[in-house]
Amino acid sequence: MRIKERLSILTGDLFGGINSAIITLPQALAFGVATGFGASAGLWGAIILCLTVGLLGPKIPIVSGTTGPVAIVIASMMTALGYDIKAAVTIIMMAAVFQFISALTNIPSIVKYVPYPVISGFMNGVGVIIIILQLNPLMGHKALSSTLETVLHIHTSILTANADALLIGALTLLIVFGTPRKLNKIIPSQILALILATFISIKLGLNLDRISDVSVAFPSIVTPYFDINKLISYIPYALTLAIVFSAESLLTGLVSDSIMKAKSSPKHILGALGIGNFVCALTGSLGGSAATMRTVAALNSGSTTKLTTIINPLILLVLLYQCSGFVAQIPLAVLAAILMKIGYDIIDMKFLKVIRYAPKDDLLILFVVFLLTVFYNLIFAVGAGITLAALLYAKRVADKAKTVHKKVYDADIMQMERVLEKDYKHKIRVVHIEGQFFFGSATQLVSHFDDVLGTEYLILNYDADDLLDISAVFALEDIIVRLKSQHIKVLLVSNKDVVEQLDSLSIVNQIGYDNVFYDENSAIEYAKSKLKY
Fold first, then answer.
1. Any residues with CB less than 8 A from the CB of 453 and at least 6 apart, and which?
2. Domains in the chain, ordered, with CATH?
C-alpha cells in the first residue's frame, strides 16, 4: 500500500475517532445521570467498552457505549432494585456473560427474523420514554421512575417548575434542534449546546442542579454479589439486558457493513462486547452496546478501520482529564434537553412517513409493541410483537391456502432464461422472488444481491398474489439501492396490485416507471433492446 493511501486511511480514522468522541461525550454524561450510575460511570463506560471492542472486535469501526435502549433498561432496573449499585453491577456482569455465551452459538442469526414493525414499535417506544422521563429534569425536578407516573404528575411539575432550569433547557433544545446542517457537520449540535448552555448558566449565576461530582480517577474494582439466591433472582434482568445489548449491536453491525460494503461477523462483535461489558461491570462503569449513531458519524467522517475505536476513547480520556471542572458545572436541565433530542432521533421517521400506506396487520403490531414498550415492559413488548406477527402471518397463509390455485412453473420460460443469460454473458439476469415475500424471506433475500458483477440489467420477477408487508418493502428498497450502487439497472415484473402498492410507497419512482412490467417477456425484450445501443 502506498504511503499516500495509508495517510488517507489514518486521516479518516483520526477524524472518525474525534467526531464520534465529540458525539459520545454529552450522551455518555447524560445516560450516566439518567440511569442513576452517575456522569463519571457513563463516561468511563464509554471509554472502557469502546477501547475493548477496538482491541478485540472486528476490523471495521464499531463505536460502542451506552445507548438509549440500554439506558432505559438500566434505569428501570435501578428503580426496581432501589438504586443498589452493587446489584446493578452484578446484573450487568451476568448480562455480559450471557452475551459472550450467545456469541458462541447461532443465536445472533435469529435477530434478522424479527419483523420490522416490531423493531419500529420498540424504537419509537424507547424514543418516547426518553422524552417523557426527561420532562421533570427539564423543569428542574428529579426524574420520576416511570412514564406513567411522569404523565400523571405533569400538571404539578409544571406549576412548580424552576424558571432557571426551564430557561436553560429551552435554550439547549433550541440549539440541538435549530443548528443548521452545515454547522452541525462541523461541530455536532449536542456538544455545541452543552458548551454554550453551560457557559451561559455559569455567567448568569443561575440556580440549577448540576452534575457536581466528576471523578477523573480510574474506577475501582467493584465486587459483585455471590449469593446464589440473589443471582437466581437477577437472571430475568440479566437476560433482558443481554438481549438489548446484543440486538442494537447486531443492528449497528448491519448498518456498518452496508455503508462499508463489508461483511463482519455478528459473533465476533457480540464476543468483544461481552468482554467489554464484563470489564465495565467490574469497574462499576455503565455497560452498553454498539452505537449506531456514533458509528455512522465515524464512517461519514472517513473512518475505515478499527483504529477509530481506539482513538475515540483516547480523545474522551483527554477531555475527561482536561475538562473535568467544566463538566461538573453542566446543568442537569441541559443533559435532559440533550436526551430529549436523542429520544427524538431514535423515533423511526422512515416508517412514520409511510405509515398511512402500511398494511393493517403491520400497524396493529407497531402500536401494540409501542404501547407495551412505553407503559409496561420493553422485552415483553418485543416478545408480544413477534408472537402477534407470527399469528397474523399464519392467519394470512391459512386464509390464502383456501382460495389460491397456483400454476405449475413453465419449463419453457426456465429454459429461455438459461439461454438468455448464456447468450448475453450474464449482462441480463432474471431473478424470481419465489414464495411469500414477507419479513422472514425479505432479510434472507437481501443477502443474495451482494455480488452480481458483470450484470447490467437485473429483472426481479415477483409473481405472487400477496401484497408485500412493510419489512419486505424496505428490503426491496435496500436491494434496489445495492444494485444501483453497482450500476445495475433494475427491471421489476409483478402484478397490478403489487405495483400500485409500491407506487404509493415511492418504490416505483426509484426504479423508474419505464422499468416496471406486468410480464417477464416484455422486460426481457426491453433489456435486450437497451443493450443494442
1. 486
2. 3-388 (no CATH), 411-532 (3.30.750.24)
